[in-house]
From TrEMBL:
Protein's UniProt name: Peptidase A2 domain-containing protein
GO MF, any single term: aspartic-type endopeptidase activity
Native species: Amblyomma americanum (Lone star tick)
Polar residues bias: start-end ranges: 201-231
Residue ranges occupied by any Peptidase A2 domain in the UniProt entry: 261-341
Residue span of region Disordered: 186-231
Keyword hit for Hydrolase: yes
PROSITE patterns per UniProt: AMP_BINDING, ASP_PROT_RETROV
Pfam families linked to this entry: AMP-binding, RVP
GO biological process, one term: proteolysis
Amino acid sequence: MATRGFPNQIPEFNGSSWSSWVGRLQFYFEANNITDPALKRANLLTLCGEQTYDTVCALIQPSTPAAVSYDDIIAALQKHYDPRPSEVYSRARFQRRDQLEGETVSAYIAALKRLAAHCNFGTLITTATGQERDAASSANPTMLPLDVMLRDRFVCGLCDESLQQRMFAEKDLTFNKAYDITVRAESAGHQQREIRRNTEPVHQTSNQPNHSVDASENTPPSDVHGTTTPAAPSVLYDLNAMKLGTRPKIFTEVSVHDQLIKFEVDSGAACTLISEDTFRTSWPSDAPTSQQDDTHLRTWSGQNLPLLGSANVRVNYNGKTHTLPLLVVKGSGSSLLGRNWFASLGVTICGINQTPSQDVVQQLQEKYEIVFSEEIPGNEGPPVTLELLGNAQPKFLKARPVPFALRTSVEKELDKLEQQGVIEPTQHSQWATPLVVVRKKNGTICLCGDYRSTVNLATKASSYPLPTPEEVFSILRGARVFSTLDLTQAYQQLKNNQKLSAGSDHIVIEDGVVRYLTSTFEVPNVDFGTFMRNAWRQHEEKTAIVDGTSGESCTFAELDRQGRSVAAGLKSLGFVPGDVATFVSVNSLDQLVALFGAIFAGAKVTFEKTSLTGIFSLSLSKAFVAFGKCNDMLQFSKLKNGPCDQTEQPAPRDPDDVLFVFYTSGTTGQPKGALITHRNFVAQVTGVASEKTTFFERDVYMGLLPFAHPLGLCVTCCQMVNGAMTVALRTMGIASLLAACGKYK
């Protein structure tokens, strides 16, 4: 049978999508009843094109095409043009795929299914037989079915938050059910927008260049677009402009999908579009994936602009990258940069008499120079007075050593504070408070004094009631514009009454003693357990911890209750305040419950890193906490869920008592134990959590850093203080991190 007489021969393979071309080839064989392997090989090598034929010859050397079977040639080309990616990489791409702006639900589902092709997910629950599901489960017990993974990724990646919330509320949600709900909701939204659409014509005059973009004004004037009312039941965008005079057009160049395209900036166009000729010229290969679009375009004269389709393209402009929708119109014509790209690209429209935004900023900075000044003028109100108790005795504490890595930064910060008039050197003082160094998010440091250990014990406390939420909301009622004011070094702008303070505001550093001329922020004078429980009370019903492996979670109130149960269980076993508890565990929900339970019981906590025997002998551990298979040991679940008197307060501890003993890895031959007191750790957490631009209540923190490390535990506690949710991850692999981000973000 000769192929010359066959109708509708498929085009040559262009190197873009091998799987698509070879699929069409199989249907070509089926349509023409070609079953003989030799004829299949002959047709393949005839239809594939010259370049692909040369590739075949190179791949099968030293053999010739006539000596190699059809199946072997297909396998070689498959491996060359469409190699199978790794499972981990494929799943990472699948988990990171969210619905793009302007992307339809059907297109989003199709994209997810393409990405899932190489993810090696299990069989579909809805279509597989019981025998197939059992076989898949026995081969890989942890393999999730494809429709379950599609459902989870589809729901988590939806752009519409209200629709996503509806999915979360659905009971027994399946992939087919989620798809049906979203498609119907999307269709209803299109219909609603069509009904409510404003049909009044809107015109934009262009008698002057109203765009704040770099423009080249060297092209002749153009024709005019007008507005019409849509007649078809679909989204319709109007392209409007009125011709006044012969002002030249405004152009700018934008990088679209790695190709530089010259656009006419048109504030009268609701959408951004290019012609079919421009699309094919710009991307002869590796073009953006296009899709059908029901958008209708009309000129002012009522002429329809036939739409070829739309694509979500990668746009780079002024150093910023965005993914934006682009319409492709059949034929040839100008490329228009419409209003739907303005916000993303930073394009603004200025009125005739409008002052440029840069001038406005400069005028505000000049008018309110004192607000933007780096200097600290200080509060003009009455000074702060530290009123000492009648029997107060001065307390002078030694300076704490500053790490060598921070000494230069500390010296510069002290010099800066002295120049700003915040501190000044002094020769003698009966009071001295140790310096506390807090590292900020931007890499700089903040200095304060640990006054809880000195002057706060000897001063009279003043009560300043804070307004309740109801009072604040009453004041804000009717307000429409809100702003956040962050005072630079706010506490240090308050001046002290030096005569009445009696030197109690002095801090001691390694080079001597300095005294504060202003006030500083304070560290709570409580033990760590009380400090954390006070923070939890503000977020009792919020989720505190989620175990990234088991999925088990608990609220802040449940964390408090379970911690108390563990403390009561340890107490019943003879554990008393001051005893040492050693922890051997990876990050988990139970680890944090046990940790706070031991702290509530008044324990000193240490973590095993090297030799258990050495740790036990050095720390004199009385309790050993581990998770896993440990014979003849009390199960932790019995402690966590055991009875306790919720009215009984946790064992009180002095803030200067030892809280943690963190051991080094023993690189010097013997592990070294670093003692951290309750006050030390409360100061660290308070300092880090005070960065309100870093931690927020709505955050979801991925607990990848080990909780057994000072930094990992400190950051986790900061999230708890701010009411954020922590996901405990047991491994530090990128796959588990990406999976958790996709699930809990």
